[in-house]
Structure formats: structure tokens, C-alpha cells
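Hi everyone, sorry if this is the wrong subforum. Our group has a chain we'd like a structural model of before ordering constructs, and none of us has done structure prediction before. Sequence below.
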Amino acid sequence: MQIVSKGLFLMLMMGIFLLSQAQTSIQQNHSEVMTYSEAPSVEQAVLSYILAGDERDVDGLTAITDESFRVLFNDPVKGTLSNLDKATYVGLVQKGVIGGVARAVEILDLDIYQGVNAQVKTRLVSEKATFYNYFSLVKTENKWWVAQDLVIMEANE
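Answer:
Right subforum, don't worry. Here is the predicted structure as C-alpha cells:
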């Protein structure tokens, strides 16, 4: 009978444990990993929404937003939270109250769950302000829709 040193035994046990954990993780995340093939479609939906706002393209906004769409604008300076439904938001864009300014877009994070829900974090920079947006998207009828735009704005110095 061969005696294995305590250190070697512990290393072998740790290796077996890590392999079993990796296998469990792969099995649990298999469906999530497969949904990342949706990432380009999710990105395109978000970029279409942003561009439509920047260009005040009401038809484009209407075409990419879900019927239950809303904007939550959190203003830490005023300490207020504005909740705009789809009709109100599109109306403000159409009247020229908001939108109409080109912004540089940076996608900071993208998460897709089960191929039907997604969240995208972006930084949008214009000459006067930087926006941090958390977009919630849903996939129905084989199309990604923007359901919510949670936004905070910081004035550029």
C-alpha cells in the first residue's frame, strides 16, 4: 500500500472539487451561454433606440420600443425621479423638448437571460452632458424591444 503525503492528498482533493464545481457551473449556465448569440441583436436594438432619440426620429422610437415602454430619469441634483410613459416620451421628442443631440455611445455591460430578457448599460457622451443608461429589453414576436430606459445625467464641466 502506497502512502500519499497529506499535502498531495489535499491538492488532489482540491483539484477534484474544482473540476466538479466547473462542471456544475457549465451545466447551470449552459442555457445562458447559448443566449449570447443574441448579443448583436440586443446591441442593434439599443443603438437604434439611441440614434432615433439623437435624431428625433419619432417613427424609429415607436418602432423599437415596447408598448409598455417607460423612461425613468433619476435626477440626483434635484432629488427627483421622473417616470415617462411611451406616449409622453415620444411627445417630448417630437416637440423638440428632448433629444436631437448626437452622443458618443459606449456599451459598458450587456447581460441576456434565457434569450428573452436583456439589460444593457451604456455611457452616452455629448458636448454638454454624460448619460448613464440601463436599458431593459424583452424579446417577443422574434424581435428585441426596448422596454425601459433608466437614465441618470451628469453635466460635463
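For your construct planning: The longest strand covers residues 143-155. The radius of gyration is 22 Å.
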